[in-house]
Design a protein that fits this description.
Chain lengths: ~325, ~100
């Protein structure tokens, strides 16, 4: 399976089914607590598997380089995104900063779906990309808050509060924690828990994406805060950021799958970790806007078109 | 007949990540007891909303407390400036309670 064939994989088709069901006003729904449980399962699973792969391959300079690059991207991407949102999107400083923070951070589910499609295409990304993803979760929040303060004078939380909300963010703790467990236990330690964390993984991902299709489509239907401009930017930003990610990955010498994964990470926008933190730290920002852009437009775009696009770009630049 | 005393019942509809702000304001107003209630969904000025545990940003909670008029006023004064920016919905109503010393 390669290129655009991934659009016909069960994972993507379940997402499309969810979206179609929501558009058709079906009463199909997945209980919220089960959806929350599935997201925790997916994060623990991807973290564990990444740690096991790094334990097998060993630590290297390449890992350090990828980690530094990921961190740099997460710190830098919000700045041009903020300027674009201010000028082209005509957003006020607070909302532009809040949205920029989402686009500098990453979407775990987009990454997990990307890893699945890249693996199916025969170009699996390196296991350490999971750790890169975890590192890219929160720097953008700090930059987003600083942008909000510099441009609008918005109050920032205390250092302790910011540290708690970013570094101890639940998804970061679970991703890095399970990555560390996988790294410590290695392949032998992973074998007994593999039936839960590996065998069932794709099936759970299908169900989770079914729910995400429902949520994204319903949010799009109710997205009063979205305008044609912000919706267009929600497509333009991932394309620009994803391209930067792939190019940077190629520049530091990543293999095709890992460069594509870095593009997927850079092109994705958070809708799990960042919204709750931004709601708390920048309450004046409109959650309908940042969730509408990241969840209702960018996420479906990346799942259906973005991932094949970044993969194709990586294949062209790095080679297949 | 059991004696009842009038108190103020305060309900605040608040996004889950902002509950701490409301609890802090109530503590500053001298209110010690409160209950947090989950919600399923609804509709308002920003459109329809529903329980959202995946992002958690727009899950809404009802902060419920019963207190004296003085403490009610103190809490209202603290919440009034952030009602708009934090998207809070505040209700205050009279309520008769038994065991007035508890509230």
């Amino acid at each position: 399976m390669g290129g655009w064939d991934v659009l016909l994989s069960p994972v993507i088709l379940f997402f499309v089914l969810g979206a179609l069901a929501a558009f058709a006003r079906s009463d199909l729904s997945i209980p919220e607590s089960i959806a929350k449980g599935m997201s925790l399962y997916l994060m623990a699973s991807i973290g564990l598997k990444g740690g096991v792969q790094v334990a097998a391959a060993g630590l290297s300079v390449e890992i350090l380089l990828a980690a530094i690059t990921g961190l740099a991207l997460s710190f830098l991407i919000p700045v041009p995104a903020f300027l674009l949102l201010r000028r082209a999107g005509r957003l006020d400083p607070i909302n532009a900063a809040a949205v920029a923070a989402h686009y500098g951070s990453v979407s775990v589910v987009t990454f997990v779906t990307g890893v699945e499609t890249l693996t199916a295409a025969g170009i699996p990304p390196a296991g350490y990309m999971v750790a890169v993803m975890a590192l890219m979760e929160t720097p953008a929040i700090i930059i987003g808050l600083l942008l909000a303060r510099r441009t609008s004078g918005a109050a920032l939380p205390t250092r302790g509060g910011l540290f708690h909300e970013t570094v101890l963010n639940g998804s970061v703790v679970l991703l890095l924690g399970s990555f560390l467990i996988g790294f410590i236990t290695g392949k032998d330690g992973f074998a007994p828990v593999a039936p839960v964390f590996d065998t069932a993984f794709r099936g759970v991902l299908c169900l989770f994406l079914l729910d995400m299709g429902l949520i994204a489509a319903r949010r799009l239907q109710d997205a009063r805060a979205l305008t044609a401009r912000t919706a267009a930017l929600a497509v333009l930003l991932p394309i620009c950021n994803g391209t930067i990610g792939v190019l940077t990955g190629a520049l530091i010498g990543l293999d095709t799958g890992s460069a594509a994964a870095l593009g997927i990470l850079a092109g994705s926008a958070s809708y799990i970790a960042v919204p709750a933190v931004i709601r708390q730290t920048l309450p004046q920002a409109d959650p309908g806007l940042y969730l509408g852009m990241s969840l209702a437009v960018t996420f479906p775009f990346n799942i259906t078109l973005g991932i094949p696009l970044y993969t194709m770009l990586a294949e062209r630049i790095v080679g297949s | 007949m059991t004696e009842t005393v009038e108190r103020r019942r305060i309900e605040v509809l608040v996004d889950a990540p902002l509950v701490k702000s409301v609890v802090r304001a109530s503590e500053e107003a001298g209110i010690r007891g409160y209950t947090l209630l989950p919600t399923l969904g609804g509709a308002g000025a920003g459109g329809r909303w529903s329980d959202d545990q995946v992002s958690g940003a727009q899950s809404k909670v009802i902060f419920l407390t019963v207190t004296t008029q003085a403490k009610c006023d103190a809490l209202t004064d603290r919440l009034a400036p952030i009602l708009e920016s934090h998207g809070l919905v505040l209700f205050i109503s009279p309520v008769d309670v038994v065991r007035a010393e508890k509230f």
